[in-house]
Amino acid sequence: MKILVATEKPFAAEAVDGIRHIVEEAGHELVLLEKYTDKAQLLAAVADVDAMIVRSDKVTAEVIEAAKQVKVIVRAGAGYDNIDVKACTERGIIVENTPGQNSNAVAELAIGMMIYMSRNQFAPGTGCELSGKRLGIQGFGNIGQLVAKKAVALGMDVVIYTNEVKEKHQRWKATFSLEHLYSSCDFVSVNIPATPFTKGCVNYNLISKMPKGGCLINTARKEVVCEEGLEQALSERPDLKYATDIAPVRYAEFKEKFGKQIYATPKKMGAETAEANMNAGLAAAQQICDYFAMGCTKFKVN
After folding, report:
1. 185 and 140 assigned to the same domain
2. 180 domain-assigned
3. CA-CA distance, 28 to 50, in Å (whole number)?
4. Is the domain of 174 the same as that of 259?
5. Cα dihedral value 227, 228, 231, 234, nearest 10
6. Of 26, 111, 119, 142, which has the highest C-beta tally within 10 A?
7. What number of other Cβ atoms are within 10 A of residue 124's Cβ?
8. 52 — phi, psi (to 5°)?
9. DSSP secondary-structure letter at 67?
């Protein structure tokens, strides 16, 4: 089988070497399309391959239509909203993700952003410590659980919004009310996927309920935060702050208007560590090889 790695933002060289080893050891051929600059390049590359590994690359209905032989697509990462899952399903193409492989990198970034915002973005002036502050976690999957553990180690009190406490110990409290989570926590870390049910769910009603000096941290997707609601809350509450790994559509305007109330990384950095790069790439390659060898679809999302 011919397996394409299509990455506008490439894997590290070591990860590519590892992917190649897994693919070729299983008797398949690896094809690389890295740093492509035009959709036409992607359309040409998918024409004769049997599987695809992508990162944040857009796998649209047009790409799927051009991929006549593709049987499985794996997104090296947890989120897969960059793939047209409906179009894949209609074509009988299996879509998988690699949950957990990037989680530690994203969790560490969330903690780093809390420190950055609590210390005035490292500008002169008196900041505050995380120890003793209360952190709310919206989304208690792989990333949320790691953020909680790291926050507890820093001396924070943690409250999670969940319908199921996944670990049977007393390291944090649980709440079934988002309103309570936001109104009682100094920081809130958003770790939820972008779905029709979650887009825009972090709205004015929630953000405006945060305590004085409250800070919202988003390492998920920009679509889950309502920009209009965020703007209104930051306008009415100069004490509130927002840090995100995914810049809002109107970030330049927001930055000019709100200054140090808001911060966005220059480009999505959640999974940008050597370790996460390696873990997600190797997992994606192994999952494809397992599918062709045994029909394994453990991480299928459609």
Report:
1. yes
2. yes
3. 10
4. yes
5. -100
6. 111
7. 5
8. -135, 140
9. -
Token pair for residue 79?
A: 């989120």
Number of domains in the chain: 2
Do the domain assignments include residue 256? yes
Question: What's the rounded Cα separation, in Å, for the pair 279 and 286?
Answer: 11
154 and 188 share a domain?
yes
CA distance 238 to 252: 18
Q: Residue 48: which of 64, 68, 65 has the closest Cα?
A: 68
Q: 141 and 211 share a domain?
A: yes
Give me the domain span that covers residue 151: 103-264
Place of tokens 């790291």: 150
Residue 240, domain member (yes or no) = yes
The model carries a pTM of 0.86
CA distance 64 to 31: 17
> pLDDT tens digit string along 101-112?
999 999 999 999
In a domain, 25, yes or no: yes
Give pairs for 268-274: CB < 8 Å, separation 24+. 268/56, 269/109, 269/245, 270/102, 270/105, 270/106, 270/109, 270/219, 270/245, 271/55, 271/77, 271/102, 271/105, 271/106, 272/105, 273/105, 273/108, 274/12, 274/14
- What's 51's domain CATH number? 3.40.50.720
Tell me the pLDDT tens digit for each residue of 176-219. 999 999 999 999 999 998 889 999 999 999 999 999 999 999 99
Residue 287, CA distances (Å) to 47, 96, 139, 264, 281 in order? 21, 8, 25, 33, 10
Residue in the block written with tokens 């080893």: 21
Q: Are residues 247 and 279 in the same domain?
A: no
